[in-house]
Design goal:
The structure is a homodimer.
Chain A (H helix, E strand, L loop, with lengths): L5 H7 L12 H9 L2 H9 L5 E2 H7 L5 H13 L3 E6 L5 E6 L1 H19 L1 H12 L3
Antiparallel strand pairs in A: 1-3, 2-3
The structure holds a DNA duplex.
Chain lengths: ~130, ~130
DNA sequence: CGGTATCCGTGACGATACTG
DNA sequence: CAGTATCGTCACGGATACCG
């Protein structure tokens, strides 16, 4: 039992993981969700199930590769479900799971903060970059 | 006045920026704050002003280069203030500004979510990776 | 102490072409 | 339509050394 890490012992004690530690699994999860593509994708899925092509059109700034990769990661992590409807042509829908919806308020808040405080940040940058 | 971008006109109309568009400045800001280093740094500064060495010790998983770079970005964006106290040796303190504190609840929520839902995500991954 | 400067490998990311 | 595969690039980020 002495081989347990600090994070493991902390978890068993009822306390949470500590994302500051590189070895902590919560840290890896944080790396995963604190990601620009994830924040955009989850936000886009807020309105309900969406087809791949709809998502791709909405997130015009995301390449096909990154969108697919992000959706795969989210699916693996249990945040989105992927439903394939066999037809010609094939139809694939993505939808947030219950777990995914629990993350939605946070992702929405981040996107909202960025859009809301854009002007203040821009002003701060201008001041910072101001020549001597 | 006809040279304004769609984002600028939207802002003046009272509506927010649209972070889905690559050209939108809010998108760049989102890219900046939806970052693992930023989320860790802002969270670490939640308790009040901290010295560089304290931060570095706390965020053991962050290299000196990334920590400095992240703090510089946050300073430029007006989220963090940097105070140098001339002495031997030099002392540098970092502190969240009012703008930075407005972001704190969101960053805290992200880190909290990661630590809280770690087990569920881990279970989802195991299920996803389960061989045929 | 609190950085900066430099090197350098890895992998993120976009563009393109192809498939079921 | 919804991908997968492959390639090339370039910036992220770690390691190391040096500076005020």
């Amino acid at each position: 039992m002495s081989t347990r890490t600090a994070a493991q012992r902390r978890a068993e004690a009822g306390s949470a993981y500590d994302a500051y530690l590189a070895e902590c699994p919560a840290r890896q999860l944080l790396d995963r969700i604190a990601d620009k593509w994830v924040s955009l994708a989850v936000n886009a899925l807020a309105d309900g199930p969406q087809r791949y092509s709809d998502l791709h059109r909405r997130l015009a700034s995301v390449s096909q590769k990154m969108l697919t990769q992000t959706l795969r990661h989210l699916e693996r992590d249990g945040l989105v479900s992927r439903t394939v409807t066999p037809a010609v042509p094939v139809r694939v829908d993505y939808e947030l799971t219950a777990l995914g919806r629990s993350l939605l308020p946070v992702m929405c808040a981040i996107k909202g903060w960025a859009e809301e405080h854009m002007d203040e940040v821009h002003a701060a940058r201008t001041a910072y970059d101001a020549p001597s």
